[in-house]
Amino acid sequence: MTFSNRTPGDLSLNPIAGAIERLKGQSILDLTESNPTRCGFDYPSDLLSELSSPAVLRYEPFPFGHPRACRAVADYLKTKGHAVDPDRIVLTASTSEAYSFLFKLLGGPGDGFLIPTPGYPLLDHLLQMEGLEMLPYPLRTTEGWPVDLEKTRQAAGTGCRGLVVVNPHNPTGTFLSRKDQEALGDLCEKNQWAYISDEVFADYAYPGRVHNPWVPAQVLSFRMGGLSKSLGLPQLKLSWILLDGPSALLEECRDRLELIADTYLSVNTPVQLALEGLFRFAPLFQKQLMDRVLENRRLLEEGLNLNEVRLWPAQGGWYALVEITKKGLRDDQVVLELIEKHRVLVQPGAFYDFSEGSFLVLSLLPKTQDFREGVSRMADYFKGLTQKR
Ligand SMILES: Cc1ncc(COP(=O)(O)O)c(C=O)c1O
pLDDT per residue over 169-206, tens digit each? Predict the structure, then answer.
């Protein structure tokens, strides 16, 4: 029996997962928790009532999503100041699925997509599962994480079919500058690559920042968002893709994407019919989440004001980047020691493929009392290192 190479050859636990497994049953403060439904946010008790409306018993398949649901997404985006035509919206069960539809649409086995690096380690799996190549393009390790354009051009090779931007980026929490957006857009136009913009964290710009969506005009572009982040409801399984591009290309794109979406018809009817009502929860959820993120960031700033580490500035999103500035300390070693000696879990930058420096990645979603305790344990660990010398 053999398996395809769409899943990794080696499925053994990495040393961090191994350490957690060994400590099973013991309490570990998890500062990587980013499932919003486990972070103590208030969800109204009647939030899901419309999911059981009698209308849901009727199945009317629409490849791009129920027109009522597409309109609800357009209306929601209008509240954010973005005018979107409901006919240019495609619904999917998740943003991961949206990526997989776009990869199927645009690339064949052996083709590749330019992916920002460091970045969230989901894209490499999604690409591998489609038989596609990841073409990492570097963000420079300096404030704002600007794109290294020269290296991006070099990374493309011959089989490149599209370029992905994540805006704001995970895990750096930075928005792409307009200059970088336009330069990447030019590259796409010159090479006829599609432009895929992952905007799942766009609702979470920090005070003083705004998300200004932008796409190049002369190529197909796809902007993505979804309920898992906008409403903190990953279990409802609904995301969207906004299509744009020159009209002839767009028409063919819609026809081909329709065939893909029609093959799966994966978005459930209850969530689509309830969507308009669900979006009313957006201001309440997003306020709770922003308050949490800003308070936890403040705790990090205060608690890790140490020589051994530096909190990187960020402009949005759910994550924080802490650089280990003390020489000779590797991120994976620090993460293991934090688990084993202090029972606190953070992620090593290695999971995100940082090309230089030593970084820790923390979720800013955990309940504030847990976060405070976790930061205090981290501070004890770093202070202990200095005292040992
Ligand atoms: C940048 C980014 N894009 C996409 C996703 C996947 O989103 P979804 O839950 O809608 O599949 C995540 C998940 O955390 C993410 O961080």
Answer: 999 999 999 999 999 999 999 999 999 999 999 999 99
CA of 116 to the centre of ligand 1 (A): 14
Alpha carbon of 200 to ligand 1 centroid (Å)? 7
The overall average pLDDT reported for the chain is 96
Ligand 1 atom closest to the Cα of residue 234 is 9
Opening angle at CA 73, ends 71 and 78, nearest 5: 95
In a domain, 5, yes or no: no
Judge if 106 and 243 occupy the same domain: yes
Map residue 329 onto helix, strand or coil.
coil
Tell me the whole-structure pTM to 2 decimals: 0.97
Q: Could you tell me if the CB of 92 is within 6 A of ligand 1?
A: no
Q: Print the domain residue range for 343.
A: 15-42+283-388
389 has pLDDT over 60:
no
CATH number at residue 301: 3.90.1150.10
Q: Helix, strand or coil for residue 73?
A: helix
237 CA → ligand 1 middle, Å:
12
User: How confident is the model at residue 42, as a pLDDT?
Assistant: 98
Based on the fold, state whether residues 137 and 236 are members of the same structural domain.
yes
For residues 104 and 148, membership in a common domain is answered with yes
Q: H or E stretch including 272?
A: helix 269-279
* Spatial separation of the C-alpha atoms in residues 380 and 369, rounded to whole Å: 17
What pLDDT is recorded for position 387? 72
Ligand 1, residue 226: give the atom nearest the CA. Answer: 10
Same-domain check for residues 216 and 301: no
